[in-house]
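Hi team,

As requested, here is the filled-out complex form for the zinc ion run. I kept the field names the same as last time so the parser does not choke. Let me know if anything looks off before we queue the next batch.

— J.
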Amino acid sequence: MAAVLTPQADDFPRWYQDVLAKAELADNGPVRGTMVIRPYGYALWERMQAELDARIKAVGARNVYFPLLIPESYLQREAEHVEGFSPELAVVTHAGGKQLDEPLVIRPTSETIFGEYMAKWVQSYRDLPLLLNQWANVVRWELRPRPFLRTTEFLWQEGHTVHATEADAAAFARTILHDVYADLMTSVLAIPVVPGRKTVHERFAGAVNTMTVEGMMRDGKAVQLGTSHELGQNFARAFDITFLDAESQRQTAWTTSWGAATRMLGGLIMVHGDDAGLRLPPRVAATQAVVMVAKAGEGVVEAASALAAELRAAGVRVEVDDRVDTGFGRRAVDWELKGVPVRIELGPRDLAAGSATVVRRIGGTKTSQPLASVASSVAAAMDEDQAALFAEATKLRDDRIADVASIDESVEASAAGWARIPWAVVGTEGETLLAQSGITVRCL
Amino acid sequence: MAAVLTPQADDFPRWYQDVLAKAELADNGPVRGTMVIRPYGYALWERMQAELDARIKAVGARNVYFPLLIPESYLQREAEHVEGFSPELAVVTHAGGKQLDEPLVIRPTSETIFGEYMAKWVQSYRDLPLLLNQWANVVRWELRPRPFLRTTEFLWQEGHTVHATEADAAAFARTILHDVYADLMTSVLAIPVVPGRKTVHERFAGAVNTMTVEGMMRDGKAVQLGTSHELGQNFARAFDITFLDAESQRQTAWTTSWGAATRMLGGLIMVHGDDAGLRLPPRVAATQAVVMVAKAGEGVVEAASALAAELRAAGVRVEVDDRVDTGFGRRAVDWELKGVPVRIELGPRDLAAGSATVVRRIGGTKTSQPLASVASSVAAAMDEDQAALFAEATKLRDDRIADVASIDESVEASAAGWARIPWAVVGTEGETLLAQSGITVRCL
Ligand SMILES: [Zn+2]
Ligand SMILES: [Zn+2]
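And here is what came back:
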């Protein structure tokens, strides 16, 4: 059979574009840098959202919704912040049939508008910590867009919190990094992330400390999957977020912000996918198993439905594919492209033998199994495959991290993967040198 | 105790504003007509979303995400559509630091951009029906905004579907009206909606038939809670959505669209609230019961937590209120304002007697109960209260619907509620006359 996708080794970015199209994950939008997330891609996003939202709520944050449009003046209150974002902004100048008195910015992130309202809501130390989160779309004009990884509009969650002390804010920002982001990436997305700090140069505009979880894609490049920022008192001062402490003294608060976006979807694809298409960790797969009617025949569709019901009862997210008017081979390739962990093939001959063929996307095995044992073996496969993808990604990453001792060695190592180098050797000057070779210091 | 809210009978719109502020549901946004949905309000929206999303998936639609920004030219392809929306549009003219070649419109709804892509995805009758849904924010510049009911930006779901025949499209639009919207409103929101058709004059721009579910608020006015449109072949022709039928003949498709928004939250408040605040149907309440530590004392907090755990195990969404440094009366009024169906008060004296005081928000009863029976009685109260609110809203509505025979009688009846009149008596001329008295024909 001819390859459906460009092989990864030939052209990794092209392989990525091919997967997006062939697995029906996303299309380019009509405006440059925007995208349309198709049902199969969106179902993955919904699974990620549900898992991430549960973790955000577990650490005590509550969801809210702030307006899309922000008065331009808000962004100017925190000097570094406006400077960091101005070239990326989309601006509404006309609305309701006439020109607006003040232009409105489509949120590139919502620190400023949260700041304005958190200042009203926080009055006393009893109101702290204030832990808020928002699921929303944001717009940042992108010059070099790539679907999911870097798009003009993207979907994300952004958390914004207010604390009484610097220590509380710092501890919470770390909780988000480890218990929320790193836990999601490792236990659900099967991505062995490296959590760490960004250099001063790579910090978020207005932050005093930016932390990140980074994954390694199969081409050896890094992808930033979530960031957690300590904002010190910069935003609290700009927006006058103060509170009366237990001794009735007015104090300036400490804030944090943190976000993870549809970029995670791009990361997921690039960390696990292979030349046959996606490979989905079972915990994030919207469809974990598909029961394929290989060929029509007496009782086959009924048996497939019964098997699917049994799998569903065993907690497996399952679909039945009974499109027998489409060729079997074409459908099998399609499920492989879509990365569904387990395919159960059932035809008249299998049924007569009381068995089914179980094909595993991740291990690549293909075995005939008695119908009665299929449900329990598929349920067990979910855990095995989740662990197998994580182990494979971990090995790939570790094989590609080189411990180096100089800037020159770093440049060499970065051609194939990541370089681990003592920061004392690099420093801010070294960072500038590395930048000249197109290398960024990802994580301290 | 002084009333916290303006009484409904004195000034209903002001009562509504008071509830939004005092129950901490929403604040006005910085841009006129926008709003900030606060944690308590957003938790209600999340419950509605979950229930609505499950129903949408149950009828076979799949979620997608389309871009926020739409090229202005898209809206012009369907003449009635652009005419219907142009005064409401917000327009982006600058982005990425320069003026755009073509202005971009923030979606007021997404028929046009869905149309463009559905035309690509639909090739053959095998691709039909194509049933898509999107959860998104939209912007329509509002001259007379009211939080939740009519805001410049609102959150909603918009469904867009393509069908092979007019009959299929019509049947699907009715399924959405009845099995999705009317079912959600009656069984979850406890709102006895009247489903029906809009007059030609009140139709959605570009639709050939607009259907609606309408609820009656406690001031006798109607609120439109969801709409389902048959778009005929208008959008299919404008966007060239065609398919090859089983005989390989090219056919023009039939489309529908349907939406429900954060307006449902406004409706919920105005249908059930009373002079003491919100009253939430248990099925939509984010917090169904609160265990209040009335006064600190040996073992009281522990007993409250144990009771909450028991309630949680019985499937009740429960919270513990142990803020004993805030006055008991103030906290009780606050839970009443927030409309939490059941309040369980526990103090040292109750604990010594092995009992708790159970206060029901909807029936207004207050009884002392043995601790051992609290969990089961609260679980039972959930069903009773859900039914009680529905019955009360139904009675209120029916008392205020007057059967009338002439336009003059309609005007009179509409001052207090709704008038039911044969359409043959009204007609399009009658509709114009009624409009002069500020009355709209809501539903046929
Ligand atoms: Zn750490
Ligand atoms: Zn009907």
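Two things worth flagging: The radius of gyration of chain A is 25 Å. Residues A 178, 195 surround zinc ion (ligand 1) (CB under 6 Å).

Thanks,
J.
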